[in-house]
Amino acid sequence: MRTLTRQELFEAAWDRPLTKVAAELGVTSTALRKTCDRHLIPVPRRGYWAAVASGKVFRRPKLKPVKDGRLEQILIRGATPAMTAAMAIRKARKAPPAKDTPQDPPLEEAAPAAPQREVLHVVVPTRLKSPHRLIAAWIDGDRRMRESWGRLGGREVSEQEAFINGRRQLLLDALFKVLEQRGHKVEADQWLSYQGQLRIDRQGLDFTLLPRVTYRREPLTAAELADPTYGNGRRRYRQIREENGELELVVKDTFGTKGAWHDDGEQLLELRLGEVVLGIEDLGQAAAAVQARRSEEERVRREAEHRRAELESQRRRDANQWRRLRELAQRDEEVQRVRRFMVTVRARAEAEGGLDEEMLAWLSWADAWIAAWDPLTNGAGQLMQRVKQVGERDYRD
Fold first, then answer.
1. Does residue 283 form part of some domain?
2. Are residues 270 and 124 in contact, defined by beta-carbon separation less than 8 angstroms?
């Protein structure tokens, strides 16, 4: 720790670079520059000492006096041992790591190998010999639909559509059978032969198996560009929808997670069906985990809501019991006041000689009402029970 005057620090800052002055004082140059700013001490700008070294001469400014006398004394706290150690650690972390020769880890410290993922091979038949029940129902529905189209003069199914339908039936037949063999459930629409639902870990996964659709942009013609009504004058191209015969299987869970597998240039879906089955099971397990997490969050929320409701019910019940207790206290004050008044009445009647049978009967009637109205007639225990019996709904206002 060191104490300087404004003049001494000003002279030091203009005699040598601020970094050297800061090193002498045991602080950083940034901290010293901030100290100079707080004490209104001008310091050289960046590049000043480089310009001086090149031969340039600058006029040194004057140190202006300050009105606040507390700024004349400057207390410089140098770096403590802990600060010095921290700076050394930061410097070591910034240094580039040493290039050591890589060595194999000891056998006992070697990381365990990651478990290999199951490899599932699914063979897709080339012919449907014993189709799955859903596939058989779809085939029968397609046959009846084609027969009705023929009677009504509808369009014929193209060769490409027939080929795609055949591939779809073979793929779904193999997929359904493998999933059911692995303990899962398959549900599907009776009339739509390209979509349904898979039950994986009690989670419903919706699937569709449709021809893959791609889009390409085609520039508009000169006549279309010149027509202001075409495309509202803003679009410079049109979207062309194309189907190249590739199939795409899309599986979605109820939370929006999606998995998609399609034909590519190297492998068809028939060769990737094992991968598809494992991917579907992963989606089901992930959906089950999300469902379990959400169920737990809902349970925690309901328990918290139940606790809040119980606390609110207890609060209202306590407020009503306190209200009843105050009412009983007011009744006790009224009873005591009436009782004192009746003592005065009895004494006046005796003094006046009017304590006849009629007066005695009336005094007995008043005493009976006082006893009935007195909250402590049956003792403190009965009073406590009367207060504790008050519930949260006894007062509506």
1. no
2. yes
